[in-house]
Design goal:
heterodimer, A: 283 residues, alpha/beta, Rossmann fold, four-stranded antiparallel sheet, 10 strands, B: 245 residues, mainly alpha, MetI-like fold, 10 helices
Chain lengths: 283, 245
């Protein structure tokens, strides 16, 4: 574990005024609107929000796979211009290379980084140990379960130099505990996208609640002051879960309200002259 | 295997009962005898060697040109729309249609036959390769990019391996294209291959010889299909975790 534990700090992430639109049929669809966030080096940030709030898109932007329409993201002071090894995005369905063994998958990024063969092999094995899969080094991805594949993807993300993990892992199983252990051991800056508020409070140093259509930051809830280990029944944990739930409920209700207004607006145009209060049932 | 035995049995019985004029369709015995004679006279082995050499050179060249051409077509959207569509059109042209042009351009020799092989096979392989690359899941490409692969490494380490099973399917199709083109070419251009043997059989009115040559061509095609392509395909699919076709 030496190479990973030896790193004392990692890069912070600055997100400044990000707005983004997807090209849609007829008109553009706004996904993100003036999102600004500051993630301290070594922090563990959980993104929560209704689906369609752009949290995954934001992760893809930090990873450099997508460019925002407006605004800028910088990692460790350097602006993000494209995908790179300092920022690794973990995909929902792992994204392992099916033609490589588990070991070769983890080695992939290391070999591209001109790490000497023997060092790379040793490091890859360490990363596999970290996710408790060293016994499956010679297996192919299709021989593993979904959860195991996620853990290989985690090991692969950890193996590259100075990893920054942005996790979009809704199918996670054991990953959560794994992730926390690894974060504590490595000091990597992590963004974790989740629908599970309980999980967010137990894992994070802060939680960001998004609203949807377009995605905006509704609240940043600091969690760093909560003592470790955090158990579901701890009073502070329960309080924060409720706090975030309340924010989330507000965010979802806001989406519903806007949906209703939009529906009424469209319906009113389609059926002029009808009483607006009748329309509610039809929508 | 059993159906093959039954076919031979019906064939033999039919010719013994003289259900058709034996001169038009000799029985398996006569064809077998012709086969033995042609092997004995070195005519068949020589023709086989000639055809296989042409095939290996022609197919080899087609792969060497076709695969990179497919990669280029995939990466240049303008080419994909123009050349890609054009190639698809050319593919509908049966290989035998290239023979007159080949004979006029290169004369009645092996170069003409080689041209007939290439004209068809290169296009088939290039189109299949471009198609295979365009079907690589974006997820794998993005995973490769976040791990630091780009440009040449992204192509060689991610795109091509990810597309390999499909590319091999294209190569397999290219082999049958090349095999047919070879026969078409040899029938019409005076080379010394298997196609020439068919032509000689026709000239001499020796139907048993023609049938023996045809059987050899079928056997060879099957052998390559089963011993080479089917095996590679099975191995790739198993390794990639894909369902067998």
């Amino acid at each position: 574990m030496s190479a990973l534990a030896a790193r004392e700090h990692d890069d912070g992430i600055e997100i400044r005024g990000i707005s983004h639109r997807f090209p849609g049929t007829g008109r553009e669809i706004p996904v993100l609107d003036s999102v600004s966030l500051s993630l301290a080096p070594g922090s563990f940030t959980c993104f929560v929000g209704p689906s369609g709030c752009g949290k995954s898109t934001l992760c893809r932007m930090i990873a450099g796979l997508e460019m925002p329409s407006r605004g800028e993201i910088s990692v460790g002071g350097a602006a993000v211009r494209g995908p790179g090894r300092r920022r690794v995005l973990m995909f929902q369905d792992a994204g392992l290379f099916p033609w490589l063994t588990v070991r070769e998958n983890v080695l992939f990024g290391l070999r591209l980084g001109n790490v000497a063969r023997a060092d790379a092999e040793a490091h890859a094995l360490n990363c596999l140990r970290l996710v408790q899969l060293s016994r499956f080094a010679a297996s192919y991805p299709h021989e593993l379960s979904g959860g195991m594949r996620q853990r290989v993807a985690l090991a692969r993300a950890l193996a590259v130099d100075e990893p920054f993990g942005a996790l979009d892992a809704q199918t996670r199983e054991i990953l959560v505990i794994e992730l926390q252990r690894i974060w504590q051991a490595t000091g990597t800056t992590i963004i974790y996208v989740t629908h599970n508020v309980q999980e967010a409070v137990q894992l994070g140093t802060q939680a960001v609640v998004f609203t949807a259509h377009p995605g905006r930051v509704r609240a940043v809830v600091p969690l760093a002051s909560l003592p470790w280990p955090r158990l579901p029944a701890d009073a502070a944990v329960v309080r924060h879960v409720e706090l975030i739930h309340a924010e989330l409920r507000e965010a979802i209700e806001q989406v519903e309200r806007e949906e209703f207004d939009l529906g009424w607006h469209l319906a009113a145009r389609a059926v002029p002259g009808r009483d607006r209060f009748d329309l509610g049932d039809g929508i | 295997m059993l159906s093959l035995g039954v076919t031979v049995l019906i064939w033999e019985t039919g010719s013994r009962l003289a259900l058709w004029p034996p001169a038009m369709l000799p029985g398996p015995g006569a064809v077998g005898q012709a086969l033995v004679d042609m092997i004995g006279s070195q005519a068949l082995p020589a023709a086989l060697a000639q055809s296989l050499t042409l095939m290996l050179v022609g197919y080899g060249l087609a792969v060497v040109i076709g695969v990179p051409l497919g990669v280029v077509i995939h990466h240049v959207p303008a080419l994909r729309r123009t050349v890609g569509a054009g190639l698809l059109g050319l593919q509908t042209l049966p290989s035998v249609c290239w023979v007159p042009l080949a004979l006029l351009w290169f004369g009645a020799n092996m170069r003409a036959v080689l041209f007939v092989i290439l004209s068809n096979t290169v296009f088939a392989i290039a189109t299949a390769t471009a198609g295979a690359l365009s079907q690589v899941p974006p997820l794998l490409i993005q995973a490769g990019q976040t791990l630091g692969a780009r440009g040449w490494t992204l192509n060689t380490r991610v795109l091509l391996p990810a597309a390999l099973p499909e590319i091999v399917a294209g190569l397999r199709m290219g082999w049958t294209f090349a095999w047919r083109a070879l026969m078409a070419g040899e029938l019409l251009a005076p080379t010394a291959g298997l196609g020439r043997l068919l032509q000689q059989g026709r000239d001499g009115g020796n139907i048993a010889e023609i049938l023996a040559t045809m059987l050899t061509i079928v056997a060879l095609g099957l052998l390559v299909e089963m011993a080479v392509f089917a095996r590679i395909d099975r191995r790739l699919r198993r390794k990639w975790g894909l369902a067998p076709v």
